[in-house]
Amino acid sequence: MTSNRRAWLTGSAAAALGVAIAPGIRLIEVAQARASGEAASTKVRWGLLIDTSKCDSGCDACVKACSDENGLQVGTGAAIEDRQRPQWIRKVMLTEVKTGRQASAPMMCQHCAEPPCVDVCPTGASFKRADGIVLVDRHACIGCRYCMMACPYKARSFVHEPVTNQRAQVPRGQGCVESCTLCVHRVDRGEHPACVETCAAAGRGAILFGDLNDANSEIARRVRELATQQLRADLGLDPGVRYQGL
Length: 246
Description:
With 246 residues, this protein is α+β, with helices and mostly antiparallel strands.
């Protein structure tokens, strides 16, 4: 094949992929955005440390920040029931069985090292990046919801209605499953997830983001030196989200 013909075919393929997959979002633009950044590396494992002693039960700043950043309420119809609305973070009360002591904490995808959602997905739509972030490929998701049943944290949502006016960097689609992405579009730009920044701006600083593999990072130091827990550690999933003060 000549170089001219190869270039023509490449351009034709790119043009074919340029069809709109949602208002304002095109496959070729998504592919180019991925190609422009550095590849995820196994040297890094992104995670969160949540200090429940700083998390107030009446505060939902992280929930609102997640919704605003990812456009979760944009374009959703008023007719849909609240319990069916996509929610990537929810506030829960955790109770210590023996003492009854309770703590408020945000619950989201735990970005497990051994994610059961990935294991049960029949199409490979659920996958884990090299840096530990668990994501869903909307183009491969068939909406079977096996991953929702497999997740012990109930961290995934199903999109029941058509989605309009989406955020350009957060493609979503009706009939797909979705969950917290750790604001991967921000992480790949060297920024922190929206929930982390908002919690800090609210003066609470209950959520810490960083590289669990970097021994010199603040999150790794705290996990190493303080008493932290993984939710349902008995399942052996090795979540990337750790909790302090439980």
